[in-house]
Amino acid sequence: MITVKEFKAEQKHFLSRINFGKSYLDGRSIRFMNEVPGKLLTCIKQRRSLLNTCKAQHKAIDILFTMLIQKNKKFFPSKSGQPWKAIQQGNRAIKDAEAE
User: Fold this and answer.
1) pLDDT for res 1
2) Torsion of CA 5, 8, 14, 20, to 10 degrees
3) Nearest to 3 by CA among 40, 51, 33
4) What are φ and ψ of residue 77, in 5° steps?
5) CA distances (Å), origin 52, targets 31, 49, 78
6) Is 2 helix (H, G, I), strand (E, B) or coil?
7) Which of 11, 25, 62, 88 could pair with 29 as two cysteines, CB 3.0-4.6 Å apart?
8) How far is 56 from 59, CA to CA, in rounded Å?
9) C-alpha span between 65 and 58 (Å, rounded)
10) Stretches in the chain below the pLDDT threshold 70
């Protein structure tokens, strides 16, 4: 995953290579160049926030499972059905997001 700092550095480099005096960029292209970086930065920040939220929720569910096990020694999280499937799905999502 690209960081905000890396993105800004790449954008600066990209813009330094454009000769606006000899370019065929029209108003639409220039507007796109000016708007998209801000939108991408927002997406990067939102993605990071969502990942951190997912991790926190995952940790909370682990704690709740532990509390259930302490109250009922016959409780097995892996036999809880949908909650266990949600844990597995969350693990995959976190792993995939961190790999990018």
Assistant:
1) 63
2) -160
3) 40
4) -55, -40
5) 32, 5, 24
6) coil
7) 25
8) 5
9) 11
10) 1, 100
Residue 44 contacts by C-beta under 8 Å, 6 or more apart in sequence? Answer: 1, 2, 3, 4, 7
In the chain, how many domains are there?
1
pLDDT for the residue numbered 68? 92
Q: For residues 43 and 7, what is the distance between their CA atoms, to the nearest angstrom?
A: 12
pTM > 0.85: yes or no? no
- Give the other-Cβ count within 10 Å of 2's Cβ: 12
What tokens appear for 98 in the block?
């961190």
Reduce the DSSP state of residue 62 to 3 states and report it: helix
Can you read off the two tokens belonging to residue 19? 């000769």
Domain extent, residue 57, equals 4-99
User: Tokens representing 13?
Assistant: 């480099």
